[in-house]
Design a protein that fits this description.
Largest sheet: 3 strands, antiparallel
Helix content: 25-40%
Low-confidence stretches: none
Radius of gyration: 11 Å
Shape: flat
Distance between the termini: 11 Å
Mean pLDDT: 90
Length: 57
């Protein structure tokens, strides 16, 4: 489980987080640059698990 500081950091970038469908895992949360290029991606069976996966990277 990521620490609260990691979640606060992700919250700073919430306008750049995108929830997408992932055919293998169910959900993907992608942190994108201003030009729309993906930087990091977290996947999971629920949106919360996808955010946790992203936070663990």
């Amino acid at each position: 489980m990521p620490n609260p500081e990691t979640y606060r950091t992700l919250d700073l970038f919430r306008d750049q987080l995108v929830l997408e469908a992932d055919f293998r895992f169910g959900y993907a949360v992608v942190l994108k640059q201003n030009q729309g290029k993906p930087l990091v991606r977290g996947v999971g069976s629920t949106p919360q698990k996808a955010v946790e996966d992203l936070a663990n990277q």
